[in-house]
Design a protein that fits this description.
Length: about 200
């Protein structure tokens, strides 16, 4: 099911964001994968790995056996725990964009986009926005651009005092929703291409 150079997505139990990686080693029940995002899962902890195989999504519990490097990219040896299970939900998960240069402009302000999904995206900011607020936005970077109307769906204060906002297209802006599906696919393609060059 896992293939050299193939794309995998890692998620940790404490979050629902997928971190894209590239398989760079296979041995028995161990998968070695490289990730662009600045994540450092604890050795011995369990994570979930998602993969597309024969046009179907699968997810599998993995144990972090070793961290072979943490900078400039993460290289982790992951040992399979149990059997892979079919999954229908990868398309609904958020894909991390922290390793890319993608920005969102809201009014006069520009913020980093930290993840994207087919349903919306998240930003980190020091500005306070009200939940439910509707605003115009332009998202661009890495050769992509789209614009439309968004609503502030979620708000969470981070440990450093910044705010993480989950933003979704307004119900009447279907064009932005369609564009985000393309942005998510482009993000996955760009990250896999960069990881493949590194490997």
């Amino acid at each position: 099911m896992y293939e050299m150079g193939g794309s995998v997505f890692l998620s940790m139990e404490s979050e629902h964001v997928l971190h894209q990686g590239c398989v760079i080693g296979l041995q028995a029940d161990t998968v070695v994968a490289e990730f662009l995002d600045p994540i450092v899962p604890a050795v011995g902890s369990e994570i979930t790995l998602q993969v597309t195989w024969r046009d179907k999504f699968f997810q599998q519990k993995m144990r972090v056996a070793a961290l072979r490097q943490t900078e400039p990219t993460l290289v982790a040896a992951l040992v399979q725990v149990g059997e892979a299970q079919p999954s229908e939900h990868r398309v609904r998960c958020r894909v991390s964009t922290t390793a890319l240069e993608i920005r969102a402009r809201i009014g006069e302000d520009t913020w980093q986009v930290v993840d994207v999904s087919a349903e919306g995206f998240a930003i980190l900011t020091r500005r306070l926005y009200e939940r439910g607020a509707v605003m115009s936005v332009t998202v661009w970077g890495e050769g992509m651009s789209c614009a439309g109307r968004i609503r502030v769906a979620t708000a969470r204060r981070m440990e450093d005092g910044s705010m993480r906002y989950g933003l979704v297209p307004t119900e009447d802006d279907t064009s932005l929703g369609d564009a985000l599906v393309d942005v998510k696919a482009r993000v996955e393609s760009i990250q896999l291409r960069r990881l493949s060059r590194i490997a």
